[in-house]
Structures are given as structure tokens and as C-alpha cells.
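Batch queue: ligand-bound targets. Current item pairs a single chain with zinc ion. No template structures supplied; prediction is de novo from sequence plus SMILES. Inputs echoed for audit trail.
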Amino acid sequence: MMLIPCPWCGDRIDAEFTCGGEAHIVRPDPATASDAEWADYLFMRENPKGLHHERWFHAHGCRRWFHMTRDTVSHRIVAVYAITESAPEATG
Ligand SMILES: [Zn+2]
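Prediction returned. C-alpha cells below.
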């Protein structure tokens, strides 16, 4: 079990949340993107061993999205921040 600090509800168990995958993926312009760029946007994701920026949804709580930076090896949560914010500098 992992305790996740929802920015609005405080610490809750991970069963209340849904991970929305990698954060900060920029959608290319479909009118100008090549097939390779579009495929990269749709399917290719980072799979780092270490810090990873992710989107999370508090499905069984406040039903809000937020960003979280988590170490994929230890599950240590480094930062939690608003869905509209960029990744904190110190977390890579
Ligand atoms: Zn919440």
C-alpha cells in the first residue's frame, strides 16, 4: 500500500486513486505532425528507473486530477502539484 498526498484531501491510500500515466506530454498539431510524430505522441512513453512525472486522479475522493513526481523504484513521492503546473525544477 502506498499513501498518496492528495493536494485537496490529504494522505489517502492508493486504492482511491487512478494513475493517468506520464505527465507533461505535449500534443502535436495534427495538421502538421508527421505520422511518426503522431505515433510517438499516442504510443511512446518514458519508462524510467527513478523519478517519473505522472498524472493521478482521486477517483474515490475529490475526483480531481493532479501531478505527482514519484520514484519508480522506491515509490517515494517527491512532489505533488497542480495539473496546470510544470514539473518542479529540483525533481528533473
Ligand atoms: Zn482528493
